[in-house]
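Problem: given the chain below (105 residues), write out its structure.
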Amino acid sequence: LCGQMVDIIIRPHREQRTLRSNRYYWGIVVALIAEHCGYEKEEMHELLALKFLRITDDPVTGSPRRKRTPDTDSAEFAAYLDNCIRFAAVELGVVIPDAEAVEVP
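Solution.
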């Protein structure tokens, strides 16, 4: 970096979700719901995120927008996971095993 300009960004620290919780989300939660609904995992993820991480629609186009899951901190991601699991059980009849009860892929 000698002789190069650098940017320093200071922001409050946020606890990021763990790799294990991310693997649980994709390998168990999204996979089971997607299988039940007949969707690919990526499609199911997008639908779940639009349902539970929705933010204000785009002011120019009116298109729906959502928060990206990597932009959530550990508490927000845990709440998002709980919403997905509750939705699966109540609306779809899909039982998602507890993260501690399964081996996460």
